[in-house]
Amino acid sequence: MTDDRMIQTEDIVVDFLGLRALDHVNMTLKRGTILGLIGPNGSGKTTLVNVLTGFLKPTAGSVRIDGQNVTGQSPYQIARANVRRTFQTIRLFKKLSVLENVVVAGVSHGLSRRDATQAAHQALDRLGIADVAHLQAGTLAYGAERRVEIARALITQPAYLLLDEPAAGMNEHESDELLEMIPTIVTDFDCGMLVIDHDMRLIMRLCQQLHVLNYGKTIAQGTPAEIRSNPDVIAAYLGGEDRVTGQ
Ligand code: ADP
Ligand code: MG
Question: How far does the chain reach from its first CA to its final CA, in angstroms?
């Protein structure tokens, strides 16, 4: 039997009133692996995550999850296939406690309050933020807010986890901690992880595979070593080679 435990897009096109945000994108995210989705600002990264999670219906093309065609399904339906995401712009209930924020995510995905509470404690522990569980989410520093977002996504033991700029706003120490934690999530849940980030150092160290977008088109796919020396990628990051070496 072939292993079809992956998210696969086929020729995804997204048009916004005259702007082609995604142009025939074919992407594969396999279970148990970390895929980096990179590209300059406005290249279509968030749009692709929106398509994968049902927040946006593609103009053309299809999305398959574990072999099933889910194109055009709602975010709620796709979440039932255990695909979870975080948002580039943090979305927390600022007045609720950190713990409540995570519990609510579990309950809204079908866990009992009791199971959700237990799982929430585990998720906060894993993210290293158990000590702020009872603080109001609105009072947290930015790096901690990001971790709460990930904890919310983890509570249902996702099969796929899509992180849109999880290290944005983190200092170097915080993003290093994140870098160490992400592979443990992939191993423990055997999930497929997609990470968007501008920090090439982080992305190159974290990911087995990279997918590079520019103006909505795929300009390269491959291992970090292949991407680093790809002339199209270097050209897309106008600053030149030093911007993509990740060193
Ligand atoms: P990235 O995440 O790579 O920075 P995005 O996917 O957010 O890029 O955006 C890709 C392009 O699509 C950009 O030109 C952006 O302005 C445009 N875009 C994104 N969302 C919308 C929308 N809802 N309506 C119109 N244009 C959009
Ligand atoms: Mg984006």
Answer: 40
